[in-house]
Each structure stands twice: as structure tokens, then as C-alpha cells.
């Protein structure tokens, strides 16, 4: 590939990234969506006046400019309002349970993210037709429709990593889109996003990719010495991969995942474990030095090749900003080293018009990025079948086994019949700082799917507390029987916990799509797995069962 940027320098690239990330100010996550409602529905009640002096004719709730291609003609006056997504029970539902565990390590996030639209552009004859104002969503000041963001994060060894992903991962995606100069697919030039003032003036996308991979190589080593991410065309060997767009959404997501994992890993490597700190303090208080502690090497607590490299996102050194999340100044992963990690599955939904994706007449584009054993499912409208968008990253997966056999010492099978690599069940995850050198990375598996109008009924995101016990079709059939996504998510989590015996933390997100009203039409509705689910429930409450 021909390089047209500045000469590549690892030290210069790292310093630029660190300085830029330190001064970058992240906004609060938008856990709401914006839509138009008829102004008549917001008129003041004559019996209960609002006591405001401003005439309604003079109010201007929204003055953001939008491009001509995204303007929708309304039949009557509308007002732009914000609706919290977690309160929209007919569009989104979340169910959470800690199961039989003493605490919950799962987290989730849902809302809108500030990145350019990536939906497939519609023909002019379709995009310019008039739509009813009840079906109209809101455009942003850039002219693009809203991009929705859903994510479920399953922590292991603690909740520090899953909480970090809930609060920070969307910010990494937004910043990566700016760094790479990602452009909207619905507009001719850049989608109205201003990338000036960032580091794009000094580094091009090729340098960003090389810099991040070099950081992994120098900091962690091992598996990452020959690491070549799939969606980094600057490091690709074959011509087909080099032809990949360096500013695509796939490259942005891969960079965001790897950058977040690098910052979390380096932040933990520079800390000491709680046991080491207590032993050091005890040795200092003792009048006679402990011979065991004195004989230990100075780098006994190091877990990476270069653990002294500071984390660029160690938030202890960053000033708090107005509108930032409350824990902006807190160190990543707590004050002591966190040895656990988290799996993650996120979904981005983009539409070619302001009409929201849950409208039966609206097509949309879904991109799923996934590491670990959390799961994303779609339900087809025509036959009611469960369509998985993710695969479990376990040692039993042939592609993962081939990737790790050159670095892992052994694959073992535990008493439950599950394969593990050096005691780990997941071959891809955030965190797990002690296993990075053998190849436990956060390089995401990315899947893109085009949703036709009303082609799919709903989408489900679940943690392994649900998918590890229930089959995909069982999960989908339970959702079909509910009236709203909120009811569906609660029933799904409740059923998984009640029938699992020693239940793990369970989290389920149910997102309504265009074919929601027809979810029971295809494939006999939910009858396909009803007998199997009834057997699970009877067995769970049978006093003669071995689990009792």
C-alpha cells in the first residue's frame, strides 16, 4: 500500500495519542432518543396551566439545520422531544438478575451515539417521498438520522471491567470515528462532522493503525508480536484486505475495542495487587526483614513485557469537565490491580431516513461487534427463526483453537465438559491482564446485516447466564409470548434463572424492530419449543430432581 502520510514514528505517534486523549472531553451518554410529536399533544392543559409567560407561537424547541435529503415534510406542526430509551417500554426492555451469585457483574447500556450514519443509502424516489409525521424521528445538526447503541457486558472476576465498558466504550467509538475521519454514507461530504483540531492533521489512518498495533507489541508482546487485525488494511498482507476502506465503520470499531482494551490492560499492569501492597507494608513495619520478600525479584509483580508504560486513559491525571460522567477522575479498574475481565456485545443501528428503525416501513443497517460468549439474536418475521449474529469465543471453536495453539501451553476440559485454555473459558475478552500474552485479545468479531422493512420482529442481547442455559430458539420463543419488550426481557431472565439451578448473573435486552406486531405469525409462533420449556420448568421444581 502506498503511504502518503508523514514518516511513521512509534514514539511520536504514542505521545500524540496520549496528549490528545488526555485533553479530550467526553460528554455524558445520551440514554434517550429524539423524536417529533404533534404540537397539539403538547398543548397546555386549560384546567392545569403551566404558568409560563412565553406564548407557544414564539417557542423554538429545535433549530438544528438538516440537509435537504434528510428533511421530511410534515402534515402538521410537530415538536422535538427527548424520550428516555429505558422508559420506552414498547420499544426497549432490559431484565437483570444476579441469579444465585452474591453480586451482579453484568452491565448494559442503551441510547444514541454521536457517529456518522452508516446505513445503505436509499434511491431518491424513496428518500424524497412524504411520510406521516407520526412516523418521523429527528435528525441531528449534521443532517444524519440518529444512530442507536445497545450493549451488554458480562464481567468475570468482578464488575470493574464491565463497568468501565458501560461508561467508556461508547466514548472510544465516538473518538475513533473522529480520528479516522469517518464519513456519512448518506451525504456527499463528511456528513457535517468537523474533524479539524484533532490529530488527523498530523497522522493519517495508516499511522493510527500501525501505532496501536506497535503499542500492543511493545507493551504486551507474546501473541501481539505478529498481531494483524482483520480490519486494519495498513497491516494486511493480501490485496483483498488492503483494498478495505481505512475509514470504514469496521476499522473504527476494531480500533475502539483494541484501544479501550489496551488502556484498561496497561492501567492494571502499572498497579500492584492488594496482597503485594499488604505484604510490603507488613515488611516495612517489621524490625526484621522477611527473607522471602527480600529474595523476590524487583519485577516479580510484572505481568507484561513493558508494564511501566503509563495508560493514556488513566483518568486520575485528567481534569474533570463539565457534563462528564461522575467517575471521570477515578482510576481505571479501581485503585488496585484487577485481574478479571469482561466479554462484550454491542449493536449499532442506523437508518437511511429520520424514520426510526422500529417503524414497519423503515429499513435499517445493523452492525454487531462482539468478543466473548455474550450473544445477539434476531427473530425473522416470515418463519420466526432465531438468527445468531455472534459465536461464542471458546477454545472449542475451530478458528479460535487454531489462532491460539501456537501460544497456549495446553487445552483442557473441565468437569462440565467445557474446553479451557490455561483455565480461561473465553479466548477473547477485555481485561484478563495475566492472559494477554497468549492471545486473549479484544479484537471484535464484526457482523453487518441489512434489515428490510418489517423483515425482523425483534433483537435480543443476552449474557451467558441466559444463552449458556437456553437454546437460541427458546430465547426467541419466550420473547414472542410477551406483550412488550420490557415484559419479554423480565420473563426471559426469570425463566433462565429459575430453570438453571446454580444460576449465573443474567441480563437480557429486547429491542423492538419493524415486524414486532407479526412476531407470532411465522413458524407456528412460540409453539416450537413450548414442550421443551415446560419440561425445563417441571424439572426445576421437581423435588426428586438431582439439583434439589
From TrEMBL:
Pfam families, A to Z: PP2C (PF00481)
Signal peptide start-end: none
Compositionally biased tracts (Polar residues): 311-327
Keyword annotations of the record: Hydrolase, Metal-binding, Protein phosphatase
Residue ranges of every copy of the PPM-type phosphatase domain listed in the record: 129-513
Ranges of Basic and acidic residues composition bias in the record: 530-548
Stretch list, region Disordered: 41-76, 273-337, 518-548
Superkingdom as given in the UniProt entry: Eukaryota
Gene3D superfamilies referenced in this protein's UniProt entry, alphabetically: PPM-type phosphatase domain (3.60.40.10)
GO molecular function annotation: metal ion binding; protein serine/threonine phosphatase activity
Protein family according to the UniProt entry: Belongs to the PP2C family.
PANTHER family: [PYRUVATE DEHYDROGENASE [ACETYL-TRANSFERRING]]-PHOSPHATASE 2, MITOCHONDRIAL, PROTEIN PHOSPHATASE 2C
Protein name: PPM-type phosphatase domain-containing protein
Amino acid at each position: 500500500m502506498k503511504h502518503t502520510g508523514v514518516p511513521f514514528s512509534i514514539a511520536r505517534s504514542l505521545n500524540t495519542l496520549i496528549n490528545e486523549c488526555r485533553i479530550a472531553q467526553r460528554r455524558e451518554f445520551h440514554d434517550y432518543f429524539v423524536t417529533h410529536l404533534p404540537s397539539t399533544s403538547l398543548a397546555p392543559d386549560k384546567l392545569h396551566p403551566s404558568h409560563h409567560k412565553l406564548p407557544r407561537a414564539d417557542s423554538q424547541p429545535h433549530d438544528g439545520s438538516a440537509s435537504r435529503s434528510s428533511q421530511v415534510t410534515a402534515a402538521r406542526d410537530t415538536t422535538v422531544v427527548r424520550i428516555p430509551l429505558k422508559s420506552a417500554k414498547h420499544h426497549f426492555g432490559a431484565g437483570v438478575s444476579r441469579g444465585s451469585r452474591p453480586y451482579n457483574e453484568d452491565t448494559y447500556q442503551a441510547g444514541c451515539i454521536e457517529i456518522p450514519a452508516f446505513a445503505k443509502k436509499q434511491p431518491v424516489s424513496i428518500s424524497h417521498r412524504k411520510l406521516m409525521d407520526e412516523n418521523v424521528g429527528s435528525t441531528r445538526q449534521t443532517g444524519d438520522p440518529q444512530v442507536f447503541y445497545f450493549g451488554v457486558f458480562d464481567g468475570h472476576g468482578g464488575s470493574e471491567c464491565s463497568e468501565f465498558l458501560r461508561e467508556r466504550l461508547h466514548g472510544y467509538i465516538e473518538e475513533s470515528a473522529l480520528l479516522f475521519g469517518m464519513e456519512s454514507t448518506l451525504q456527499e461530504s463528511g456528513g457535517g462532522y468537523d474533524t479539524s483540531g484533532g490529530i488527523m492533521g498530523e497522522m493519517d489512518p495508516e499511522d493510527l493503525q500501525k501505532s496501536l498495533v506497535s503499542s500492543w507489541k511493545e507493551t504486551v508482546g507474546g501473541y501481539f508480536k505478529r498481531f494483524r487485525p482483520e480490519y486494519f488494511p495498513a497491516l494486511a498482507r493480501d490485496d483483498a484486505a488492503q483494498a478495505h476502506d481505512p475509514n470504514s465503520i469496521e476499522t473504527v470499531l476494531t480500533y475502539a475495542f483494541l484501544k479501550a482494551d489496551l488502556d484498561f490492560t496497561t492501567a492494571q499492569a502499572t498497579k500492584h495487587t492488594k496482597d503485594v501492597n499488604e505484604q510490603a507494608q507488613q515488611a516495612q513495619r517489621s524490625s526484621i526483614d522477611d527473607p522471602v520478600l527480600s529474595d523476590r525479584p524487583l519485577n516479580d509483580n510484572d505481568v507484561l513485557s513493558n508494564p511501566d508504560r503509563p495508560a493514556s486513559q488513566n483518568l486520575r491525571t485528567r481534569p474533570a469537565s463539565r457534563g462528564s460522567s461522575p467517575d471521570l477522575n477515578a482510576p481505571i479498574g479501581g485503585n488496585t490491580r484487577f485481574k478479571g475481565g469482561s466479554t462484550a456485545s454491542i449493536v449499532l443501528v442506523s437508518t437511511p431516513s429520520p424514520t426510526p428503525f422500529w417503524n414497519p416501513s423503515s429499513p435499517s443497517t445493523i452492525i454487531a461487534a462482539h468478543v466473548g460468549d455474550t450473544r445477539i439474536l434476531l427473530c425473522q418475521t416470515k418463519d420466526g427463526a432465531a438468527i445468531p449474529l455472534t459465536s461464542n469465543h471458546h477454545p472449542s471453536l475451530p478458528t479460535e483453537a487454531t489462532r491460539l495453539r501456537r501460544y497456549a501451553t495446553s487445552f483442557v476440559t473441565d468437569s462440565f465438559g467445557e474446553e479451557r485454555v490455561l483455565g480461561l473459558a473465553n479466548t477473547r475478552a477485555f481485561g484478563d491482564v495475566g492472559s494477554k500474552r497468549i492471545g486473549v485479545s479484544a479484537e471484535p468479531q464484526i457482523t453487518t446485516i441489512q434489515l428490510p422493512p418489517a423483515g425482523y420482529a425483534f433483537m435480543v442481547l443476552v449474557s451467558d447466564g441466559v444463552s449458556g442455559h437456553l437454546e437460541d430458539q427458546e430465547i426467541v420463543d419466550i420473547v414472542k409470548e410477551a406483550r412488550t419488550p420490557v415484559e419479554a426481557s423480565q420473563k426471559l431472565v426469570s425463566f433462565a434463572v429459575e430453570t438453571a439451578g446454580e444460576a449465573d448473573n443474567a441480563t437480557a435486552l429486547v429491542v423492538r424492530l419493524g415486524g414486532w406486531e407479526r412476531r407470532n405469525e411465522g413458524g407456528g409462533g412460540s409453539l416450537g419449543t413450548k414442550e421443551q420449556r415446560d419440561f425445563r420448568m417441571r424439572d426445576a421444581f421437581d423435588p426428586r430432581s438431582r439439583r434439589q
